[in-house]
């Protein structure tokens, strides 16, 4: 039988991922500290801790992949008109703000996808916290299980 203390710790493990807004890498540090200090006390806490950490690692991995796809589109657009072989300083350098290229549209669409992913991540963390508060086990979608 789960007591309120176990439910509260599991809830705080999920909510501690929001500490990234105040502490660099707080979304990893908070859950790891809470999980490692309490994982032997309950299977429920152990399960929620692993889920929260796996989800944060997965989100970080997805963000790195999305960033590596997005950044080159903007770089190619910015340096499109510069000839690096015959570069004579900035005397002939100009930025053309005319017609946007398809690369910019693709990069912008990937940026919008990143914002939508961020909003979904926040919603999933809140849902996991509420499930932990109610004493239910929650499995994040799209999560790679690094810790089993």
What's the arrangement of secondary structure elements?
Layout: H1 4-15, H2 26-38, H3 43-78, H4 102-133
Helix pairs in contact: 1-2, 1-3, 1-4, 2-3, 3-4
What does it look like?
InterPro entries: MamF_MmsF. The chain crosses the membrane at residues 21-38, 59-82, 102-130. With 148 residues, this protein is mainly alpha-helical. It is built from four helices and no strands. α1 (4-15) packs antiparallel against α2 (26-38), α1 (4-15) packs antiparallel against α4 (102-133) and α2 (26-38) packs antiparallel against α3 (43-78). The longest helix is centred in the middle third of the chain and has 36 residues, at 43-78. The chain is elongated. The two termini are 23 Å apart.
Q: Choose one word for the global shape.
A: elongated
Arithmetic mean of pLDDT: 84
The tally of strands reads 0
Can you summarize the main beta sheet?
none
Distance between the termini: 23 Å
Radius of gyration: 22 Å
- String of helices and strands: HHHH
- Strand residue percentage: under 5%
Helix content: 55-70%
| Count of discrete alpha- or pi-helical segments spanning 4 or more residues | 4
């Amino acid at each position: 039988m789960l007591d309120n203390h176990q439910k509260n710790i599991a809830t705080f493990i999920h909510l501690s991922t929001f500490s990234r807004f105040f502490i660099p890498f707080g979304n990893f540090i908070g859950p790891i500290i809470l999980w490692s200090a309490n994982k032997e006390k309950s299977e429920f806490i152990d399960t929620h801790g692993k889920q929260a950490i796996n989800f944060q690692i997965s989100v970080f991995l997805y963000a790195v992949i999305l960033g590596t796809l997005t950044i080159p589109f903007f770089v190619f657009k910015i340096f499109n008109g510069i000839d690096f072989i015959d570069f004579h300083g900035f005397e002939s350098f100009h930025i053309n703000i005319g017609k946007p290229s398809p690369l910019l549209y693709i990069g912008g669409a990937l940026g919008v996808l990143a914002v939508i992913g961020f909003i979904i991540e926040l919603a999933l963390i809140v849902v996991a916290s509420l499930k932990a508060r109610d004493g239910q086990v929650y499995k994040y979608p799209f999560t790679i299980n690094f810790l089993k």
